């Protein structure tokens, strides 16, 4: 889950620990505290993209680029 105030980044996640990725991006203005808590209860971890807050339509593209760079392709088989 992309969270603008999270210190953990994709680079700090061990690539050996990742077997798949599901990306949760909130709306402009961010997710509510209740939505963040709900996502955490359902297996999402929070990661940040650095000190800049990106627009809702820009953040997923940046995150997907970083995911591809850090973890490569995931096989569906």
Plain-language structure description:
- It contains 2 helices and no strands.
- It is mainly alpha-helical and 77 residues long.
- The protein has one domain.
Percent of residues in helices: 25-40%
Q: What fraction strand?
A: under 5%
Our Rg estimate from Cα atoms comes to 12 Å
Number of discrete helical segments: 2
Structural class: mainly alpha
The helix/strand series, from N terminus to C terminus, equals HH
Give a count of the beta strands, DSSP E runs of length 2 or more: 0
User: What is the typical, i.e. mean, pLDDT?
Assistant: 82
Major beta sheet summary: none
Cα shape? globular
Count of the domains: 1
Which residues form runs of ≥5 with pLDDT under 50? Answer: none
Distance between the termini: 24 Å
Question: How are the SSEs placed, and which strands pair?
Answer:
Layout: H1 33-41, H2 59-71
Keywords:
mainly alpha, globular, about 0% strand, about 80 residues
Short description:
With 77 residues, the protein is mainly alpha-helical. The chain has helices at 33-41, 59-71. The protein contains two helices and no strands.
